[in-house]
Design brief:
By secondary structure, the chain is an all-alpha fold.
Length: 67
């Protein structure tokens, strides 16, 4: 009784489809997919920025080794 079989999950799925309808569920799935894609793109941009080499600082060199 502790675990659900595939038949329990199918009944739950049918009830959800009857309550919300396929159009609403398709819209929710599309929105969720675009959110995941946006999240992955953001992570990728952050990793690319970390891998980008730092720009050299241009300026005068001060040599303190000479007496």
């Amino acid at each position: 009784m502790g675990s659900f079989s595939i038949w329990h999950w199918l009944v739950v799925l049918v009830i959800i489809i009857l309550v919300f309808g396929t159009k609403k569920l398709g819209s929710v799935g599309k929105d969720l997919g675009s959110a995941v894609k946006g999240f992955k793109d953001g992570i990728k941009e952050g990793e690319d920025a970390d891998k980008k080499p730092a720009e050299k600082e241009v300026g005068r060199v001060i040599d303190n080794d000479k007496p």
